[in-house]
Amino acid sequence: MIVLVIRSDKPEAEIGLFDDDKKIAYEVWQAHRELAETIHKKIEVLLKRQKLEWQGIEGIVCYEGPGSFTGLRIGLTVANALAFSLEVPIIASGGEEWQKFGIEKLLKGKNDKIARPMYGAPVHITQQRK
Q1: Contact present, 60 and 90 (Cβ < 8 Å)
Q2: Mapped to the 3 state alphabet, what secondary structure does 92-121 carry?
Q3: pLDDT for 9-26, tens place per residue?
Q4: CA atoms of 56 and 17, how far apart (whole Å)
Q5: In a domain, 130, yes or no
Q6: Is 19:74 a contact under the CB 8 Å cutoff?
Q7: 101 in a structural domain
Q8: Residue 40 belongs to what H/E stretch?
Q9: What is the domain-level CATH number for residue 32?
Q10: Domains: count for the chain
Q11: Residue 54 gets which letter from DSSP?
């Protein structure tokens, strides 16, 4: 199973490709404020280097947090959109070994269907100004 992994919770974004649990390609780059502009291009280049097409992705694992609100939102939105459009399973995972545990879940047939962020703090809703 070809698995795309995405981590976008900090200024250094990470993407990778695994064949089951074997890492076949990985990239870390300073995305910072250009994450939304660069993530699709980076994934496409990573796929092309492995002679794969978008349709070659068979599962997605993404880092759920905690981390940057905007970074997590962008990464998880890309992951969810890809999973939906490619009709592949998606797993949101956290912790130090997020990739390992996420890939294990995929290989066992699990599917979160929608990856949701964990920001690391409760939601703070302010009162509407009058």
Answers
A1: yes
A2: EECCCCHHHHHHHHHHCCCCCCCCCCCCCC
A3: 999 999 999 999 999 999
A4: 11
A5: no
A6: no
A7: no
A8: helix 35-49
A9: 3.30.420.40
A10: 1
A11: G
